[in-house]
Amino acid sequence: MYAFTFKLILSFLCYLFIAISLLFIAFLPFSCYILIMNYILEFNDFYFGHKIDQTAKMQSDFKDHFHPNQYELLLFLDGDLEYVIENRIYYLAPYDMIFIKPGEHHYIRSIKPSRYDRMVLTFPTYSVPKIVKDTIKDKKTLFNIKNTKLLDLFLRFDDYYKDFDEINFKQLCLNELNTLLIHFNAFDVEESHSVILNSKVNQIITYLNEHVCDRLTIDDIAKHFYTSKSSLYKEFLTHVKVPIMQYFRHKKIMYAQELIKSGMNLTEVAYKCGYNDYSTFYRNYAKIIGRPPSSEN
Predict the structure, then answer these.
(1) What is the spatial distance between Cα 241 and Cα 270, in angstroms, rounded to a whole number?
(2) Which residues pair with 142 in a beta bridge?
């Protein structure tokens, strides 16, 4: 009798635990979501991944950054956040696809703690198929691809991950990337809405890009905008998440890379971009791009 009663109580407690767990999952999905699809494949200058994180715990991993020699395609699947690219804020909806070009600073802003589900493809400029190389760089930034061929192509990466070993998965990713880029290049849909990050910071970014070849100091920039150095530094860092002079150096070097690829002499490039000596230009270039200027020839 006692043994039967004990088993009955134990069964009741087990069912109660399951019921409470299901309720917890229903009301707090981001805190206990089971990661069914969570993979990263990195090799050479390529990155293929499907990641799911909790935004409240990952802010340090999504600081402002940029890719000097790579494009990035990000498919947003779920979350409650904004994407900041240079001087614009993009409010994301499920199945939004973000296209980030080399040299564009970007980071996410979490609106509230939530599950952040996305697929990311990062690929070097040299890997872009010749048929789209000259036109893809002019594509807009944000598109919604729900119910399109592009979404089907993106989701194939998940199928390949589940069905193949790493060697075959790697080759299939490369093949699928080419197909996706050709379809993306032909994708003709109006860009999704975005807004200016901050009017004053927008003016500063515009000014820096227009004077990328000048030998500007933070004093020069502060004087131009009738503000103090400390206020300028703080306001830029608050919105762009990178120090203003570091941002300016990045833009200089990205422009220098374009000049070198166009065939200009390295010394001429250094001088044109506002450097007094080649050694300083060389050090900055190697640090930001990850290889010496001569490697672009």
Answers:
(1) 27
(2) 98
